[in-house]
User: Fold this.
Amino acid sequence: MLKLKFQKLHQTVVSSINPAGIITFLFQEAVVSAYDMRALLKIKDPQQQSGELMMLLHTSQHPQAFIQLYAAVKSQSHLSWLVERIDKFSDQSVIDLLQQLYISETTGCVNMCFSDKDVRKGARG
Assistant:
């Protein structure tokens, strides 16, 4: 859910944060490698640096990348307004976003994915 929240707020995040402290936090939590940290810190433009960081996290296989990003943002008191914006997205609003992504343009049908467990539970219930 956090990944989708950050994706929805991508432009706000990229244009509003000073990423150096965030990058350091993510390196300390082993979300960002030393190689990636060096490459990100070489970028002098903060917006480009933030954009590259966000793209790195969106392509990351780290299971807690966005949890740690949220923790990093939350640790910076001057970004409390951003934490509030992230928190305003309820889980239901993110679910609604997901459903919109799966609406077929040609049929208008919603294509939902359910696990076998959900299907079996629904068949009994």
The first helix runs from residue 2 to 8. The chain has two domains: 2-88, 90-125. The chain has a mean pLDDT of 79. The radius of gyration is 18 Å.
